[in-house]
Amino acid sequence: MSETSINTRISPRVRIDSKKNPKKNQIPVGIGILATMVVFALYLATISSKLSLLWIAGCCFGFILQKSRFCFTASVRDPYLTGSTSLTKAVLIAFAITTIGFTAIKFGAFLKGQPIPGQGFIVPISLATVVGAFLFGVGMVISGGCASGTLMRVGEGFSMQMLSLFFFVVGSLWGAHDFGWWQTNFISTGPKVFLPDVFGWIGALIVQFLIIGTLYILADKWENKKLQDQ
Amino acid sequence: MSEVILDCMGEACPVPLIKTQKKMATLSVGDTLIVQIDHSCAMKNVPEWARKEGYNVEIEEVAEGEWEIFIEKTK
Questions:
Q1: Which of B3, B5, B9, B13 is catalytic?
Q2: What is the ipTM of this complex?
Q3: Average confidence (pLDDT) over A71-96
Q4: How far is residue A42's CA from residue A33's CA, in Å, rounded to a whole number?
């Protein structure tokens, strides 16, 4: 059966449905919210331009996340569950782009002899990383979203994930409360790795791109294999 | 040539997709499955999966934040 015949069969009942639930025009509300966001950004700018920048970046990030249906959870879950790796590849491309950006910023500072920004985020890797990643992975698949995905869907009004967000906050607070103990006993025992220290700047870039590229090719092959199996 | 309705309201990703996959396996060729969802993530992965399978897919937003995905089992 062709697509046209589905259309003719479906359209009458959709028309009935839309009479039952007339959709409101959301554009005035959208313009109102956009105006409020701009006004709030201007207000923040009077306190600190950094706050204002963070607010605008956050709003843009949320908008892109919602519109693109980008989901970090799905990127690692779907290859196993459905064989789809389109989001996995999207995340890998995002990693590749940020690699270029971060390297440019860090190398730029290094060349000028300034302290390299963001070095405080290089944290030790240990067994705690593996265990933590596994626990987070289980949690995000059950709750249906990672941190950004959960926040985005709460914004969309999906009620189940308001529950996720609540317990995400509870868990984070609990984690923050005990973090000092974990830090001294487990986390700080691991080695800190900054790739340019090991391979040099160009070497680090090549190693990182090789890993991302390999994963991308594997993801692509995995999807084709899964499709053929079905 | 029957129409089957699958209610996935309030189900978070990936539950609608798994339910759809299981339901589709039980349908015969020519049947249409109507998946009702209100989770935006399922709006992406259910049609994506169905199109990759080669089924005809139509999406209708029936109300604010509620969608119906029509999947026709073509093979």
A1: B13
A2: 0.71
A3: 86
A4: 14
Q: What is the reported pLDDT for A2?
A: 41
- Structural domain of B67: 3-72
Tokens read off for A145: 């979203």
Residues of B in contact with A82 (CB under 8 A): 14, 17, 21, 45, 49
Quick: pLDDT tens for B24-69: 888 888 888 999 988 877 888 888 888 888 888 988 888 877 888 9
Report pTM. 0.75
Quote the pLDDT of residue A150: 85
Active site residue B8: no
Q: Which residues of A touch B13 (CB under 8 A)?
A: 71, 73-74, 144-145
Q: How many domains does chain B have?
A: 1
Contact B19/A at CB under 8 A:
no
* Cross-chain residue pair A14–B38, CB shorter than 8 Å: no
Length of chain B: 75
Q: Domain-by-domain residue ranges, chain A?
A: 1-68, 70-229
